[in-house]
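Progress narrative, work stream C.
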Amino acid sequence: MKFGSLPRPHPRPKLTLKQRLRAWAIALLVFLVIPLFVVWLIVCQPSLKRNSPSNARVDPAHLEATVRRLSIDRVPRDFAHRDNLARIADEIEAAFAESGARPRRHTYRHTGLYQFHNISGFFGPEDETLPRVIVGAHYDTYDEFPGADDNASGVAGILELATLLGKLEPSRFVLPVELVCWPLEEPPYFRSDGMGSAVHAASLRENGVPVRLMVCLEMIGYFSDTFGSQSYPMPLLHLYYPERGNFVAVAGDLHNRESIALAKAAMKGATPMPVCSIAAPRNLPGIDFSDHLNFWDQGYPAIMITDTAFYRNDRYHTERDTPDTLDYERMAQVVVGVYEVIRSLTVAN
């Protein structure tokens, strides 16, 4: 070898087709499959945990009667029709009292002009220092639309939960339960401090009331077995979730993953209703589109139980959101599932 010359590099062996395919498979696994799997674990919270079948029963006819009364007899019930909202508040308060709950009315003024009413019904211990479980739904609508799914369905669910809880011996409750119905969830008040739930959550924080969990019922009555009836805010989610809108969703932000998992485990198996869950960043469209956002803002754990609203129901915020479009049999299963969430947290076995 001459001085200063370099040895020739050995020629790199050519990869066989099998070796190339293996290399591509490894790269695909590392850069695509594993990240998708991690996202699935975080967002969807897959779990084998499930409840045993519930003994609780909800009459679908009762749900339908409430939805029809609110979306036919009490329309319009938007922010401008305060007389109808006040009448509904009176009826909710009376229903709570009839169920055996301890009713409580919180009247507030927004912008100093008009009165609005949060109506609560309490079960269990009256000790304000104990962490309570809150389950709520808004009773107003957007514009002058019927609002059968949005959100007469949620209010009907609350009233049936009151009936179920009223059948339990008071001594069995180890934590308080507050069922509540709020006004002014809809625009133009959405995301304002005039929302009934915003007033409620701020009052709890101001008075130092601890909250074990807040559950928001936001549209729980619309289901479809048609393929393609379910949409999502991101195309990626179609990889993880059903294409048919035949399930109920437990939703929350990433800080509430534990609460989401707890509720999902209590609901799964309690009825035949399929239960999906999602824990996502707050900037995912829809994840904070209801009253639970005000409890997040006050630092309380909160989740939403929903039929996914406009991602499934194209009658959302239209005159076509009517009582005849809802599935009361499946809606009853959702209510039983929520009852099992409450029972798992507040009732001694």
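Work stream C, second folded protein:
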Amino acid sequence: MHRMGKQQLFRRDFNFIPSVAFVILVQLSWVCFLSANTQGLIDGGIAGLFWSTIWTLVGFLMIISSMAEMASRAPTSGGQYHWVSEYAPPNIQKPLSYFCGWMSVLSWQAGQASSPLLVSGMIQSLISNDNASYDWTNLRSTLIGFPVILIVYILNVYAAHKMPLLQNMMLILYIFGFIVILVTMLVLSPRIQFVDVLTEFSNQGGYSTIGLSLMIGQMTPIFAFLCADSASHLAEEVRDASLTVPRAMFYSFVANAVMGIAMLIAFLVCITDIDAAVNDLTGYPFMWVFRQGMNSAGQNVLACIVILLFFGSTVAFNLSTSRQTFAFARDRGLPFSDWFAKVDSRRQIPHNSIIFTCLFTFVLSLINIGSDTAWGALVSLNVSSLMITYIAAFGCIIWRRIYRPETLPIARWTLGRYGLWINAGAIIYASFAFFWSFWPETLPFEVDTFNWSSVIFVGISLIAIIDYFARGRKHFDGPVTLTEGWRRD
């Protein structure tokens, strides 16, 4: 903190295990493979989803390894925009860091807004599973999501210093739920041959080739491993952060990868009819799989485990989102930065940023009532906005490694001599994922099936650029200006 010119404002309540639990819960990989797989099944089928997950694992291994090393060099809640400011060429660090700060805040806020509706959507699917005549509406989904937002606020404010305990408890449920659901599916549900998981491709999205369809379907595994930077945003509340944060990022990915692949394979071998699964009345293919092997009570018990884990993820997501927002405001990157960056001195939390995050989630939830399309476009920004910050951060560290390696801060968790090559692989994969994140799920597309995230991404980018020239360039200097050695650099 001294090297980065930051004042310690928060209590460091997190050690290694709660930090690992925190990242695991934000990503929630095996739960995502189980519950958020429709796009992968439509575009690529069973085999397509399996193989796209394999190359996504390789890509994210490079992304997470690169970010872990950067977090070791600069363990700050700012994350990518701070790293860009430290490692970019001096003449572009200020505008590029500012743009990345905007994109990172936008990405996390959009992702947080989706979390309560995932909980409410699962609750409605549970009801419709028992009552086929239940009228599932966006209004009901939004109304169910409001109490979730309120509970998340209460926990993140009034139980802030119990968060490590809560993360540990949810990690136990995460592991327990994984074992119970995996074993139950494999024992009770009908199964196909494993060779079908490797070879049965399908293209139900309307694209001209299986290869193109696979590119669209890979959004499912990308979503399952997204938000790997979450640990960095918690860094100022982690003990021995320069070592604990990168270790938590890496080992949580390993744990999520192992459990995610195992759950995905178990789920795929239990899909005996892909059309029936995708078109299940609950909206979730895994509920169709549950129904093939157990009665309603058993289905509901397993679904409740998923709901509880989604709720735990929502709490953790709010924690990371509010810290990211606070950090950018502290560096005067946001309008009304003084208000956003205010810290509750008694609780030692960024109370105002937590309030804003919950209110922003509330407002975006209202959009869901009027339009599925607008809501989906906003939420899908989580992928594209986050990827552009990864690209910028990796590009800057590559530049620094090549042209000014002597100015790099010491990393206690290091990639060693392979660092440059891993960073290069990470930026290539992040660019690849960024490009495909804007494509629609199906063709031919209409207004309600088009992926409007590209339009919104451009719009938000223009707003960020305009704000930079109108306000930001006068108030935002970039966090690098506070670090030791900046004048010398």
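The mean pLDDT is 92. No further action is required on this item.
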